[in-house]
Design goal:
The structure is a homodimer.
Chain A (H helix, E strand, L loop, with lengths): L7 H9 L10 H4 L22 E5 L3 H12 L3 E5 L17 E3 L5 E3 L20 H9 L4 E4 L7 E3 L9 E2 H21 L9 H14 L12 H7 L1 E3 L10 E2 L5 H7 L1 H5 L11 E4 L4 H11 L3 E2 L2 E8 L4 E7 L5 E7 L1 E4 L3 H4 L3 E2 L3 H9 L2 E2 L1 E8 L3 H4 L6 E5 L5 E4 L10 E9 L6 H6 L3 H12 L6 H4 E8 L10 E2 L3 H12 L5 E3 L11 H19 L2
Parallel strand pairs in A: 1-2, 1-15, 2-11, 6-19, 12-16, 15-24
Antiparallel strand pairs in A: 3-4, 5-10, 6-7, 8-9, 12-13, 13-14, 17-23, 18-21, 18-22, 19-20
Helix pairs in contact in A: 3-10, 3-18, 5-6, 12-17
EC number (chains A, B): 1.13.12.3
Catalytic activity (chains A, B): L-tryptophan + O2 = indole-3-acetamide + CO2 + H2O
Enzyme class (chains A, B): oxidoreductase
Chain lengths: ~525, ~525
């Protein structure tokens, strides 16, 4: 690749033209965002005609977001929340926290450091624009979440003698071997029909550089490979030993290892780099909304019935603050964010088809285990600072903290995590274990990747969403058939009642789904109010 | 890929075995670090036999590191530093700073935010273990530096109508097109000799998943491609518009665009993800050492001559604190970290071959420009939070800050940066410009990628290392021939004098090179002392 370099005189001449020239294009349209969403710049509500009250069920992200926008537009808002905390599944478990699950198992978190577990959402992709718009608006401090770490491990019990391989090595060796094979095919003329002569030259040049092939277009250990893949002996200072490039893995064991499959975890649009996290825990996002709408939340309110007529709704609930006394709250509209798994068990006045939709969507299972260790051995010994190692063991993945890098003292890693995935049903097995058993299992499997577990372990905490009384599962587990049959019904306004939450979105399980659902819901409610 | 899932009973049985089983392998040896360096766990000096003094020239990273280790081992240490600041090239320019370059050009930094420019080193790869060992030891706070951002741009004036393309799109489209071509070649039997039947099946399966090919093994717009490459219309909440997958670029325009070449910037071992930076600016590392050895630094000391005999060294210097009065300092040993570009002009008693080596290594040119804008338009409009956009314009790259994400108000980007690269000599052109001209040029070119420059610009600052009086260039520009002829001589102890710094390492320009050079130098000096 050659560049044309302006002389000083040419450069100065060009600079002179800056002021006069028009912008080549407008950023927003050129980047292709304009079409993406009418909500790109947030909702703009007309507000109610006269005093109107909206009752919101659930102080999770969808409920608080809806309350925030409706209040800004002039609606009276009240939130009823079953728990004595805000945020719903957007929560963070820290040392000193205690939870009791459905089975009566008491989960104590004994972490001594400021490490934590986000049992629900734990990372934010940049295209979740509603999340970041609110982080900006609500002054929620954000830091990078390291999703892909080239030093993290990929591990299979049945490959490379059970020895973990570096993400960067696997990825670069796939790329190198693929490049070598394709270059060979091109040079044999196998693709003469598919690729023009001019493109073939560029393709060979590209493969050589991208795959770091040698002059014979083979993927071999060379000094250039060291600069690309790393060293067996690193370049040093002064008269330290001579550097030695590393040696790539051959294609055949790589193909048979199954590790190529693990690389795909980094491939999705949702996992593109960089991802982000709130500083100090995911509940920072819930806290941001709570600072705005905390005053309208009534806690300890266990909804038992939703009644509605043409003019409004009446919600019955047991008031935990008054010993469970049955009370009622009325409003012009009701936005219900209660998970379908719970809502299906309540008495709800609504159309038959909405009732069917509410009962139709199963909730996915998911679990997590976090472990605290005496020191950051993954950083000190393994040079893994942040990121995720994947394994075919039932812990599925080990995620290292994206904060407190290179500090001394204890730290917490997310030592096991999976959601329901077709073809493996780990999550049910893990959900059947007690907290203590889940911690023991995470230790048992994790030490095969990090033997330091044996000496550095301090304490652990775990979470299984199917054992959580207020959600009975992790998130709405849609299929294409279910969407066709029930999604529109679930989202439509049913007289004076409308549902919102991640289950009413095409982005299940993510905070963005809850936010966009809330924004869409309040927009339609506001339009109906002003129709 | 299938997993065998243990039952609850099997899992509990396995957990029971944890305590009794030995660790499968030791982490350190299995990870292949053991061979990498004898310095992996830091130096261990014997210390002097009786009182011994070491005079160090230069309070940069190498000088301060050497001073720190020698003092810990019991040596008396003094540092002479030309400037009135510590850190050398490891520096950070902030609002309120003022510098005067060789040409008399006064460089004022008027930044209003806490944004900054690191004119020298600005990012740390994780395998620079000495850097991170010292960050841990000296309590230097570290945060991720976003090197690769899939949303950042690749840009060529001559491709795609000058419209920037997303890094993720280019990378995934290369991978998809390469996978399609290789799958085609495999299915045509073109690689039957190179790849066994068993491997061919795995290869096709791998290419289909890795390249996200459709059922006919073609790289086309499908829903799966949306999940992988992104959407023209993003999945939404409630009844928002239906999602639409994006459309990939065809192979031919991609090959001809030159953007594949720009992807290589993310390929090197030094740029693997994640990289890191000190919180608040790269001078945080210099400050960490300064907290340890600040008391032994004499500032404003302009060394003019280094004399040595069999028993020690005497260094003459003009004392800036006393109006330039000529003074002398004697010691048993001298470690000189003065850049060769400056040292070559001083009177130095040493062997002829060392004098030749000092004069033989040219210094690379490099420049940077930083611009402050009224708002983070790259985050708000372009969804680029951190990372680097590359272009074939003479600014070469635009780096977005890896801190203060999603905050309101002004922020600083590194708007142009290049070091000398064979085939393009931008750095000399840029070095010939004044500070004001460099800022104007960065604006002129950068607005072709970010038209928001026109309305959001506040102020700028620039740096050209060949115009800096105390280095006369950026770093030692070694070639293989120069290494063969002079490197060992340059690093060897010459009677009572020994050199250190990035120029005495195989990692030029990086802090790690300066540190490993210092560690190697003090080790050999200590061995000589105890021989």
């Amino acid at each position: 690749m050659t560049f044309s370099t302006p002389t000083r005189r040419q450069l100065l001449a060009m600079i002179g033209k800056v002021a006069g020239s028009a912008a080549m294009y407008q950023a927003m349209t050129s980047m292709g965002f304009a079409a993406e969403s009418e909500y790109r710049d947030g909702v703009s509500l007309q507000g109610p005609r006269g005093g109107k009250k909206v009752l919101i069920l659930g102080a999770g992200i969808a409920g608080m977001c809806a309350a925030y926008e409706l209040r800004k537009a002039g609606y009276e808002v009240k939130i009823l929340e079953y728990q004595n905390r805000h945020g719903g599944r957007v929560m963070t478990i820290r040392g000193g926290d205690r939870y009791t699950d459905l089975a009566g198992d008491v989960i104590d978190c004994d972490f001594e450091s400021d490490g934590y577990l986000n049992p629900g959402p734990w990372r934010l992709p940049i295209h979740h624009y509603a999340v970041f718009d609110y982080c900006r608006e609500l002054n929620i401090p954000i830091e990078p979440f390291v999703m892909k770490n080239d030093k993290a491990y990929l591990h299979s019990q049945h490959a490379f003698g059970g020895k973990p391989q570096r993400v960067g090595h696997v990825e670069k060796d796939i790329r190198g071997n693929v490049s070598e094979l394709l270059a060979k095919a091109v040079n044999q003329g196998a693709l003469d029909e598919a690729v023009s002569l001019e493109d073939r030259e560029k393709l060979l040049e590209g493969l050589r550089d991208w795959g770091v092939l040698d002059k014979d277009l083979r993927y071999r250990s060379t000094e250039a490979l060291g600069e690309y893949r790393g060293w067996d002996v690193l370049p040093g200072g002064g008269l330290m030993p001579e550097k030695e490039p590393s040696t790539p893995m051959d294609l055949s064991p790589l193909l048979q290892s199954g590790l190529w499959n693990q690389i795909l975890n980094f491939n999705s649009y949702e996992h593109e780099s960089p991802m982000f996290e709130p500083v100090g825990g995911m509940d920072g996002i819930a806290d941001g909304f709570h600072r705005q709408v905390g005053s309208v939340i009534q806690y300890g309110a266990r909804v038992t019935r939703i009644q509605q007529g043409d003019d409004g709704v009446t919600v019955s609930y047991e008031d935990g603050g008054r010993g469970g006394e049955l009370r009622q709250e009325s409003a012009d509209w009701c936005i219900c964010t209660i998970p379908l798994s719970v809502l299906a068990q309540l008495q709800v006045d609504c159309s038959d088809k909405l009732r069917k939709a509410i009962g139709a969507v199963p909730y996915a299972s998911a679990f997590k285990v976090a472990l605290e260790f005496r020191r950051r051995f993954w950083e000190e010994d393994d040079w893994i600072a942040g990121g995720i190692s994947y394994t075919d063991l039932p812990i599925v993945q080990i995620a290292y903290p994206s904060h407190g890098f290179f500090t001394k003292g204890p730290a917490v890693i997310q030592a096991a995590y999976d959601t329901y995935t077709a073809g493996r049903n780990y999550t049910y097995t893990w959900s059947s274990l007690s907290n203590e058993e889940r911690i023991a299992a995470a230790l048992h499997y994790g030490r095969q990747i990090h033997p330091q577990y044996d000496t550095e372990f301090m304490s652990g905490v775990s979470w299984a969403w199917h054992r959580v009384p207020w959600t009975l599962g992790c998130y709405g587990q849609w299929t294409e058939d279910l969407r066709r049959a029930h999604y529109e019904t679930l989202c439509e306004i049913d007289n004076r009642l409308v549902l919102a939450g991640e289950h009413c979105s095409h982005i299940p399980a993510w905070i963005e789904g809850a936010l966009l659902s809330a924004l869409d819901t309040v927009s339609r409610l506001d339009q109906r109010e002003n129709a």
